[in-house]
């Protein structure tokens, strides 16, 4: 069995996460899913709150997507641990206990997933609705320094590069892409540290 991994499932995939769960189940690789906030977090952004309240409300938004994933038979986890099966992290309690990141919109579920991976010394697979990190409209195959991009939050690249987190960013909407990468085939995406 391969090493465990952290899988960040972007909130933009809330309408498409079930096929991704099927792939993760079939590969039998232990994985801790970190849910994005998606439409739940958008509601927080539209609410007139800032700083601490917005931060914790957005993390609760991640939990809502986490419970949606859990409803598909994926066991929920309320603490940080290296998984031995497929689980979904409910991030509110671990983040309240550690409170490791700034309370700003420069930190979203992208950097939270990176923090989880760094805390557990695991690789990170980031599933989004884009092919990887683009800068100036150009897809970048491999990132070794921070670049300007709107595809991840502004804290993500500095965090993963400074903490040595190995990352692959893949489009979760493209059929077969996650499965091919898990099987070791080259696919379109962005890698960091691999």
Total DSSP E strands: 9
Report the CATH superfamily.
Acetylglutamate kinase-like
CATH uppermost class? Alpha Beta
Secondary-structure element string: EHEHHEEHHEEEHEHE
Uncertain residue segments: none
Please describe the biggest sheet, giving its number of strands, its sense, and whether it closes into a barrel: 7 strands, mixed
Average predicted confidence as pLDDT: 95
Distance N to C terminus:
20 Å
* Main sheet strand line-up: 3-4-2-1-5-8-9
As for the number of domains, it is: 1
Give the C-alpha Rg: 15 Å
CATH architectural designation:
3-Layer(aba) Sandwich
What is the CATH fold-level name? Carbamate kinase
SS class: alpha/beta
Percentage beta strand: 15-25%
Q: In which range does the helix fraction lie?
A: 25-40%
Q: What is the approximate shape? A: globular
What's the total helix number? 7
Would you mind describing this structure in some detail?
Helices cover 37% and strands 18% of the residues. It has 194 residues and is of the alpha/beta class. The protein has one domain (5-192): Carbamate kinase. A hairpin with a 2-residue loop joins β6 (134-135) and β7 (138-139). α2 (38-45) runs antiparallel to α3 and α5 (109-120) runs parallel beside α6. The two termini are 20 Å apart.
Keywords for this entry:
alpha/beta, two-stranded antiparallel ribbon, seven-stranded mixed sheet, 194 residues, Carbamate kinase, 9 strands
């Amino acid at each position: 069995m391969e090493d465990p991994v952290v899988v960040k499932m972007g909130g933009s995939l809330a309408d498409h996460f079930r096929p991704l769960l099927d792939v993760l189940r079939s590969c039998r690789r232990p994985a801790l899913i970190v849910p994005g906030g998606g439409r739940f977090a958008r509601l927080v952004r539209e609410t007139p709150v800032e700083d601490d309240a917005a931060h914790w409300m957005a993390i609760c938004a991640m939990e809502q997507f986490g419970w949606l994933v859990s409803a598909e038979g994926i066991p929920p986890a309320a603490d940080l641990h290296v998984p031995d099966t497929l689980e979904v992290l409910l991030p509110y309690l671990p983040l309240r206990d550690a409170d490791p990141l700034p309370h700003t919109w420069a930190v979203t579920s992208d950097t939270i997933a990176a923090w989880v991976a760094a805390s557990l010394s695991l690789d990170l697979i980031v599933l989004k609705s884009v092919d990887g990190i683009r800068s100036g409209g150009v897809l970048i195959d491999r990132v070794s320094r921070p670049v300007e991009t709107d595809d991840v939050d502004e804290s993500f690249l500095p965090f993963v590069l400074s903490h040595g987190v190995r990352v692959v960013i893949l489009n979760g909407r493209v059929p077969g892409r996650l499965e091919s990468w898990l099987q070791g085939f080259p696919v379109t995406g962005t890698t960091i540290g691999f």
